[in-house]
Amino acid sequence: MQDDDDKIKNAEEKNGILGWIEYRLPIFSFLKHIASYQVPKNLNYAWNFGSLAGIALILQIITGIVLAMHYTPHVDHAFNSVERIMRDVSYGWLIRYTHAVGASLFFIVVYAHIMRGLYYGSYKKPREMVWFVGIFIFFAMMATAFMGYVLPWGQMSFWGATVITQLFSAIPIVGNKIVIWLWGGFSVENPTLNRFFALHYLLPFIIIALAMLHVIALHRFGSGNPSGVEIKSSKDTIPLYPYYIVKDCITFGLFLIVLFAFVFYAPNYLGHSDNYIEADPMTTPMHIVPEWYFLPFYAMLRSIPNKLIGVVTMFASIFVWFLLPWLDKSKVRSGAYRPVFKVFFWIFAVNFFLLGWLGGQEVKEPYITLSRFSTLYYFTYFAIILPLLSKYEKPKMLPKTLSDTVSEMK
Ligand code: HEM
Predict the structure, then answer these.
(1) Contact predicate 134/123, CB 8 Å
(2) 3 in a domain, yes or no?
(3) 407 lies in a domain?
(4) DSSP structure string for 315-342
(5) Is 6's pLDDT higher than 80?
């Protein structure tokens, strides 16, 4: 007891108020611990997308909370409340456009983050849990974005919500009941809008919690790196601060430039003009399309004539990511040392873009056939190409240590 009192006195005398706080809540030593976290010294810019995703998430939450202060989640007022934000609320247009464009950029960053993982084999042992939690984050992001798009209560909000929720009716026996339960009524109506608003507010905080688990799992074994060779000695690493923190600031700066270029010069470029028409259950738009970031999955859904199989295919296209650690058994982690894998990976990446483009086209030939081939390649890549490459590909010689891939300044 006496000992404890002496320690408190010492800490307080040395560091004043900060020492007083630190002794009771060791927050400063925790920050010091994070700053000195050892990171492989050969990370390239592809490793910046994780921290950038974290910043994008915080930006969405801050702008979202301000929007919620002025938004009314009722079918009679929602559309007008958004118009009021745009016209009457001080800088409301800036907050709203930042939130809307920010959502798109958040998805671009996370897609790049996932592609990095696929190319560098980040899902492999021992980081499977980092990858799995990441997939849950992606699901949560899709749900959040989908519900957010319903809130302005424009034509695309209403009809997008109607089409997507009705997909659940494909489930045998209970499908229709599930749809009515999701709606809270017999169509997309006021209860639907209200619950979507509640969940759209809640889910980002769940994403924050998941992102924390993601980083805890990552810190268990430390970051991977572009060579795929694990850390062998302290010579292979440098502390997170200052080098990587400064490097993260560079991509954050670029992110802000792109974000505000869109916000100030083309704020509606990534949206759909029909959402400036108030929702009308009696008028169906000519062409119902979801937001661009759902389009690759939408293309897979539409490529299959049977509704149930289409829905299963769409969900399977993401669930298959869970199987990756077992589908890709190659001993070499990084795509940089796998010459044949590289070719198929880049075809996969182009094919994914193609699917995105096809998802925005009308349902007619040649788009239907093209979507079928693209969907086929998507699944073939995971289910057949990766297992075969794991077995038969001859990888390049790996460097002995990851430091061998870095040319150091003497
Ligand atoms: C809100 C979304 C996300 C945030 C904030 C986030 C954050 C991070 C951060 C800070 C890192 C460490 C830095 C880096 O390696 O880039 C990381 C690594 C990683 N993330 Fe994410 N992430 C998110 C989504 C995802 C998703 C959707 C996936 C996959 C489906 C994923 C898979 C991974 C993997 C496998 C690593 C380890 C990479 C390695 O060290 O080799 N993340 N994430």
Answers:
(1) no
(2) no
(3) no
(4) HHHHHGGGGHHHH---S---GGG-HHHH
(5) no
- Which residue range is the domain that position 302 belongs to? 289-392
CA of 214 to the centre of ligand 1 (A): 7
320 and 361, same domain (yes or no): yes
**Ligand 1 center to 76 CA (angstroms):** 40
3-state DSSP helix/strand/coil percent for the chain, to nearest 5? 70, 0, 25
pLDDT score of 59 more than 50: yes
CB 256 within 8 A of CB 250: no
Is the distance from the beta carbon of residue 127 to the nearest atom of ligand 1 less than 6 Å?
yes
Model pLDDT, residue 270: 92
Q: What is the pLDDT of residue 23?
A: 87
* CA atoms within a 13 Å half-sphere pointing along the CA-CB vector of 269: 15
Q: Which residues contact 204 (CB under 8 A, 6 or more apart)?
A: 57, 60, 61, 64, 144
Residues 319 and 337 in one domain: yes
On average, the pLDDT of the chain sits at 95
C-alpha closest to that of 405 among 44, 119, 47: 44
Q: What is the CATH number of the domain that holds 301?
A: 1.10.287.980
Tens-place pLDDT, residues 281-302:
999 998 899 999 999 999 999 9
Residue 153 sits in the same domain as residue 301 = no
Residue 1 has pLDDT above 70, yes or no: no
- Amino acid identity of residue 287, one-letter, is H
Does residue 407 surpass a pLDDT of 80? no
User: Is the CB of 227 inside a 6 Å radius of any atom of ligand 1?
Assistant: no
Domain count, the chain: 2
